[in-house]
């Protein structure tokens, strides 16, 4: 049974890097949460954060699970560790809110989902959430509503140029684990773009076929991808394009969605609908003209931006679900595999230089990843770990 809404949820936090520190800050403002412990393998960091937050420091997730009395955990560690920690949490009957991405590859994602489903057999009210906070952004929510309303009619194309992810060489040098196959399991698709990939599948669904072109260390001294172009084909006939990079200045975030009734464009915090007077598909088949175009009307779609967004909103929904059993999560944990199907599919297609079907061959991708890790001879020029700790990470939330 759900807990009482009149009590505080005992939460533990694992991972005290940049995003972990952000979690600590907003958790301190939530009246229905008790932060019973923070955990990091960096003992000095754990002690420092615990002292500021008025809680207990732990140096391993097992110690946190054994001693803190937590009921739920926020997982904010490097990507590979999401899988074993989430699995152990579910085995202990803990509610889980995991940072993006759910895992590095689909096989690991499915392991976490399977562990959750198994735990639910004895605890049906167990909650599994993902930190896809961009689903709370007003423009994306409006686009989702617009598509669901049917105003665009049959969708034919979606093109997303999302190159507003600039990262310098110093950023990549700020930790030994960054932008390595062994440390992160990938580059822009694994680190910067899980939100973009989740948003794509949230709006349009997972494509049936993927053709990807990923450039490895094209603009940075790294061993993973920093520029990607992908082409998608959906079962309903819609096609999609994705263009992303961490090298471009000034960057672009332009999402163009074509439906039979017109074109919806999101760019520069503006949403515009170019409405066709009639369906372009119907017009094409019925018009007597050969070159004449259907009349189109320009309409700016109003979007209420004065709403709460971000990590805290996701966590509030999660906590409410745990305490009362009511409301909906921003993103359920089981949805995390969808974006990974796209990310892994792009890379598998690029590695093999051929189109791949979705669901992808998870074993083939995992095998390739392990091969890249085993054969890596990449050596970083520098590893300024402290630079990451002192960075203003909030600057990355807007892109």
From TrEMBL:
Span of domain Gfo/Idh/MocA-like oxidoreductase N-terminal: 9-119
Protein origin, superkingdom: Bacteria
Transmembrane annotation, as ranges: none
Residue span(s) of domain GFO/IDH/MocA-like oxidoreductase: 140-264
GO MF term list: nucleotide binding
UniProt protein name: Gfo/Idh/MocA family oxidoreductase
């Amino acid at each position: 049974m759900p807990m009482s809404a009149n009590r505080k949820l005992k939460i533990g936090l694992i991972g005290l890097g940049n995003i972990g520190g952000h979690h600590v800050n907003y958790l301190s403002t939530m009246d229905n949460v008790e932060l019973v412990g923070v955990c990091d393998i960096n003992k000095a960091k754990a002690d420092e954060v615990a002292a500021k937050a008025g809680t207990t420091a732990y140096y391993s997730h097992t110690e946190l699970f054994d001693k803190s009395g937590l009921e739920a955990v926020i997982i904010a560690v490097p990507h590979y560790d999401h899988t074993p920690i989430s699995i152990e949490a579910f085995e202990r009957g803990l509610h889980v809110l995991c940072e993006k991405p759910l895992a590095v590859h689909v096989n690991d994602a499915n392991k976490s989902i399977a562990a959750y489903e198994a735990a639910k057999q004895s605890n049906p009210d167990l909650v599994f959430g993902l930190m896809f906070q961009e689903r709370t952004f007003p423009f994306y929510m409006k686009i989702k509503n617009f598509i669901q309303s049917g105003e665009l009619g049959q969708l034919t194309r979606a093109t997303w140029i999302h190159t507003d992810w600039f990262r310098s060489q110093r950023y990549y040098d700020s930790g030994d684990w960054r932008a390595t196959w062994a440390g992160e399991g990938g580059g822009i698709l694994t680190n910067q773009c899980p939100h973009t990939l989740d948003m794509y599948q949230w709006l349009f669904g997972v494509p049936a076929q993927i053709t990807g072109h990923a450039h490895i260390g094209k603009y940075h001294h790294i061993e993973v991808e920093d520029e990607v172009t992908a082409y998608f084909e959906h079962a309903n006939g819609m096609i999609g394009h994705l263009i992303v990079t961490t090298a471009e200045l000034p960057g672009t975030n332009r999402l163009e969605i074509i439906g039979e009734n017109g074109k919806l464009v999101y760019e520069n915090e503006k949403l515009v609908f170019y409405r066709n007077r009639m369906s372009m598909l119907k017009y094409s088949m019925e018009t007597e003209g050969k070159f004449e175009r259907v009349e189109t009307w320009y309409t700016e779609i109003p979007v209420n931006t004065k709403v709460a967004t971000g990590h805290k909103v996701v966590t509030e929904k999660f906590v409410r679900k745990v305490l009362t059993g009511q409301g909906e999560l921003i993103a359920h944990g089981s949805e995390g595999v969808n974006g990974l199907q796209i990310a892994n599919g792009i890379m598998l297609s690029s590695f093999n230089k051929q189109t791949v079907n979705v669901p992808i061959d998870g074993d083939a991708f995992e095998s390739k990843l392990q091969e890249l890790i085993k054969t890596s001879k990449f050596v970083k020029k520098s590893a300024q770990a402290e630079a990451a700790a002192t960075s203003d990470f909030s600057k990355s939330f807007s892109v």
